[in-house]
Amino acid sequence: MGMGKKLSQIDRRIIFLVIGLAVALPLLFPIGLQIRVSEPAQRMYKAIDQLPPGSKVLISFDYDPTTMPELYPMNIALVRHCFAKDLKVIGMALWPTGVPLGEEAFEIAAKDYGKSYGQDYVNLGYKAGDIVLISNLGKSIPQQFPIDFRGTPLEELPIMKGVRSLKNIDLVIDLSAGFPGIVEWTMIAGGRHHVKVGGGCTAVSAPSYYPYLQSKQIVGLLGGMKGAAEYETLMNARGAAAGGMDAQSIAHLVIILFIFIGNLFMFLGNKGKA
Amino acid sequence: MRREIPLFITAITGVVFIIAYFIPHPPFNQIQDLFQTWFQIIAAFAIILGVLNLMVVNGDKVYRRSKGWGYSVIIILSFLVMAGIGTFKLGSKASPLEEGTPFMYLFYNVYYPLTSTVFALLAFFVASASFRAFRARNKEAALLLTAAFFVMLGRVPIGDYLTSWIPLKWLHLSTIANWIMAYPNMAAQRAIMIGIALGIISTSLRLILGIERSYLGGD
């Protein structure tokens, strides 16, 4: 058996070990690679930064623990930016699993900026209905969410004063791990109710949102952990995402090497046969 | 009648939504609002169907002692525990989603690590597949691999680190990756989206006109 064939039949556990080490070692011993900010992230930052204090931002937590490494750091960074700019943040979720994750991000950021629940931010919770729910929010938010996730009636929350529908929202940010997500918010909140929409998504789904970005249907986009790391860089606050970029860099490099080695042996094998 | 009534409901709903989009005035917008409220109620009640299905499929497996019936017991128990604690707000005052409640304890200590672990395993399978399956067997595959090389390295900081010494910025990996994302990728995505949209329009028309009936089941 030639060396090429031997290597192509390598025990997959060795590959698992290599990729495991490629992820774990940079997390344990950070390299601190510089992060260059891309245009979509800059646009997202600018969209929030330009809002006057007191503006209402609606963040929809449409993700779950499986996509947390990518979406949770950007959730925290975005909420921090909103709080730093004295914006009022209304949270909600089209995914039931997003509610506690969004709440956790709220609590962390609120502690840092001394913000209080009901006054500066609120979590409306989850409601079924997907795209139809977004459409109905365009008509009435209190009708769709008569109480917040803690059971407090909306009229008792100062932050909700004057917020009747999506028309009273200055910016919608969707943290999207799939369906329902950015596309649905863009179509209904952006297209039908003319609210500015921006978002963050998993790296794997980011390419599919570029047409919306180019046509300015979305104001900005954070793609995956890189997008979150870029936002942390813009905020001058290195967090979990920036730390994770070292591991992701090495993991990508290792996968590229695997692809190269695999193809090299295929090429050498074909040459031998010829 | 079993076929005619669903066909009639589909046709009416479809026509109303199309008209309401172009004429958002009474009575069309009112009927649309009503249909949307019904949709939300049906969507909420669909969970009952899901729960029943879960119970019947897994209950049957346990009853028959089919292969892997132990997993079904775990599914049923997990469901009953989570749903019970959440529905009856056990150990919580206002909402089971508040910090420190038994529901959130289970969410953070069982659901959270389990789902994250399963998803994290993907990294290992991608690495294994990259070694065994990602081969430049033809021109198209070679093109795909080349794009993957630039995007995978250009979208992480190490790409810039490796090419930052090049004086020409357009040769930096991140610049190339951003160009691939913003132009060839976007053009392809837009073509796919337009294709899907045309497909949706044609399928919707077939449904409204009653030509497409496969969703009714049967032959």
Can you walk me through this structure?
The complex is a heterodimer of chains A (274) and B (219). With 274 residues, chain A is of the alpha/beta class. Chain A folds into 2 domains: 3-30 and 248-273; 39-238, Rossmann fold (3-Layer(aba) Sandwich). Chain A has helices at 3-8, 12-28, 39-49, 68-84, 98-113, 130-137, 141-144, 182-192, 210-214, 224-234, 240-273, and strands at residues 56-62, 88-93, 121-126, 171-176, 197-201, 221-223. A 6-stranded parallel beta sheet of chain A has the order 3-2-1-4-5-6. In chain A, helix 9 (210-214) links the parallel strand 5 and strand 6. The longest helix of chain A is centred in the C-terminal third of the chain and has 34 residues, at 240-273. The model of chain B has no long low-confidence stretch (mean pLDDT 91). Helix content of chain B is 75%, strand content 0%. In chain B, helix 5 packs across helix 7. The two termini of chain B are 16 Å apart. Chain B is extended and about 70 Å long. Chain B has 3 domains: 1-88, no CATH class; 90-133; 137-207, no CATH class. Chain B has 219 residues and is mainly alpha-helical. At the A-B interface, helix 2, helix 5, helix 6, helix 9 and helix 10 of A face helix 2, helix 4, helix 5, helix 6 and helix 7 of B.
